[in-house]
Predict the structure.
Amino acid sequence: MARELKMPELIADSPQAYVDLALKLATDAAHRAGVKQKLAAAMAGGPRFLDARDYARQIGEALQRAWKSYVDRCG
């Protein structure tokens, strides 16, 4: 969801990065307020994942591609 909302600053690439992010959000009110404001603006734009039918279609297509890739690799 963070990628869809164009908020990569909310994506942690390791357990330690996750802890660091959580601590920053918990202890830095100004940072938290900025993230909240950006999140509200992103949600107001109607992110695609709120369209359940389209999101389900995209997930289905991704699963089909993953299955085809698996079958192609494993024979």
